[in-house]
Amino acid sequence: MGELKEKQCVRDMIHANEEKFLSSFACKSSQTKGRAREERSCDFRTEFQRDRDRIIYSKAFKRLKNKTQVFVAPEGDHYITRLTHTLDVSQIARSITRSLSLNEDLAEAIALGHDLGHTPFGHVGEYVLDKLTSNGFEHNEQSVRVVDVIEKNGRGLNLTSEVRDGILNHKSSGKPFTLEGEAVSLADRIAYINHDIEDAIRAGILRDEDLPQNAVKVLGRATKERIHTAIADIYENSYGKNYVKMSEEVMAATNELRSFMFKHVYRPTNKVIQERAERMLSQMFAYFMNHVEKLPQQYYQLLERDEKERVVCDYLSGMTDRYAISVFEDLFIPSTFSISGGLS
Prior knowledge:
This protein is mainly α. The protein has one domain: Hypothetical protein af1432. 61% of the residues lie in helices and 1% in strands. The protein has helices at 2-21, 47-56, 59-63, 82-99, 104-113, 122-132, 139-150, 161-168, 179-202, 213-219, 223-238, 248-290, 297-300, 308-317, 321-332; strands at residues 337-338, 342-343. It has a two-stranded antiparallel ribbon. Helix 6 crosses helix 12 and helix 12 (248-290) packs parallel to helix 15. The radius of gyration is 22 Å and the shape is flat. The termini are far apart.
């Protein structure tokens, strides 16, 4: 009994420290709205720490390393993938929440899970699946479906309400109900704009001097300067407040950089891969709609609870870039054969 009491004190100690040190506007672990399915508490971890661990050990999280951020199958080891983007978002979100005395564990869990439902081939894949399905497709909604339904062979990860809400509402149009969720939304924008600039320069698409000078003047020329400026600005404008946001000047400069990237990087790059990605995903979508028995068992069993179109979309969106190409080749590219030996 003494050992069990000591273990329970670890979690209780964290709860007590949160009450003592976190802002009154922070989401405390002890005040979580809970999970859809009630579970016994962990002796050593808070509920948000458990969510973080569940996400890290999920299959969907592991696949992020082979999913496109901007550049498909780039030559070079230092380009951003969906996984390294996710880690960037997590680090920036933790810096923001730490400076504001908010709950770092909650922000980290949301950040690590925010892109679990992203498609192969980046936003091009998302655009294609959105066109193919009657109810549309958005990666933030799919990320929630991944943690609710697809992981653990249909049982889902059973995450807390706060983490699910942050994942669902991480896009700029979302309205998360925790300040930690707001921090992740800003961190996502800060991360992808700045590190996509680095990749575009590395790929020879941009030069430093091409960046809009008004934005550079406000935010800084180097990546680390721009990220530091954004985090410091959020701190100065949000500390002790019931919101997390940038100043108008820094937000305007950030949006200017974002618009610049869409015009000069995202749209041109997407155009290059869109035709091929659309052909592959469209043909695979049609094939599996007509041959649901060919779906992996994990997805086939979901047909008992969800419509066919939804499940096919689950399978395709969960693919990595290389796996999508491999499946397409297996389905639609004939094997070579020799005259004497038949198929080879």
